[in-house]
Amino acid sequence: MIIAIDGPAASGKGTLGKQLAAHYGLRHLDTGLLYRAVAKALLDAGLLPSDEAAAVAAAKALDPSRFAPAALKASAVGEAASVVSAIAAVRAELVAFQRDFAARPPGAVIDGRDIGTVICPDADVKIFVTATPEVRAHRRALEFAASGQGMDEAAVLADIRARDARDMGRAAAPLKQAADAHLLDTTNMDISTAIRAAIDIVEAGRVGRGRD
Ligand code: C5P
């Protein structure tokens, strides 16, 4: 079974993805880490995230088995990731890895921005997770505080709005809900309610497909 989860920054896709994968015994891929790793390679080399040739070279050289997720979660890396991810040639470099990950048994939960639309258009279940920008900023600010990165909530909100605009407005695989994706608005849900709702969506999808 392949479950595709898409949604804007800090919508809770990652947490939901991890929990759904554990619930169904599937592998989990947070595809944001791929774009974040490309961005971090450029930042570490003192290059601009808009440097197309360097970004494509970094995408080609990517080794996901060596990712250090904590370093990739920094706010500046997320912002730079949203710049490199608008480069079509960078996205093209990362397609095969994502599709191969999805295809390996027993299946996977994959989260990102274009999973239901571009990477796995035939996913068994597609969920588009969202919440208001204010609620997402509040959750992200709490996460930063918990990890010791002091971040002003207003600055987090500005970053989220800028990323939403860039991710939805780009020409290459923009963030959008696939026509056959289920909308999960978690604005008024705590995490356990959101997980329950996501499982209900998957179960309804499985019944619809004869539970294969
Ligand atoms: O999900 P996360 O916030 O870690 O993603 C960082 C950035 O990577 C996003 O703002 C988005 O621009 C980009 N991204 C993407 N396509 C994906 C996953 C992430 O364009 N499938």
Detailed description of the structure:
Helix content is 56%, strand content 11%. With 212 residues, it is an alpha/beta fold. The chain has a single domain (2-206), classed as Rossmann fold. It has a five-stranded parallel beta sheet with strand order 2-3-1-4-5, with helices on both faces. Helix 5 packs parallel to helix 9 (153-169). The longest helix has 18 residues, at 191-208. The protein is globular. The model has no long low-confidence stretch (mean pLDDT 93). It binds cytidine-5'-monophosphate. Cytidine-5'-monophosphate (C5P) binds at residues 9, 31-32, 35-36, 78, 81-82, 85, 112-114, 163, 167. Cytidine-5'-monophosphate (C5P) is lined by residues 9, 31-32, 35-36, 78, 81-82, 85, 112-114, 163, 167.
Keywords:
alpha/beta, five-stranded parallel β-sheet, binds cytidine-5'-monophosphate, 5 strands, Rossmann fold, about 210 residues, about 55% helix
List the helices and strands and how they pair.
Blueprint: E1 2-6, H1 13-24, E2 27-30, H2 32-44, H3 52-60, H4 69-72, H5 75-84, H6 88-103, E3 108-112, H7 115-119, E4 125-130, H8 133-146, H9 153-169, E5 182-185, H10 191-208
Parallel strand pairs: 1-3, 1-4, 2-3, 4-5
The structure holds cytidine-5'-monophosphate.
How would you concisely characterize the structure shown here?
The chain is α/β, with parallel strands linked by helices and 212 residues long. The chain has ten helices and five strands; from the N terminus they run βαβαααααβαβααβα.
The radius of gyration over CA amounts to 16 Å
The amount of helix comes to: 55-70%
Number of helices: 10
Strand order within the widest beta sheet:
2-3-1-4-5
Structural domains: how many: 1
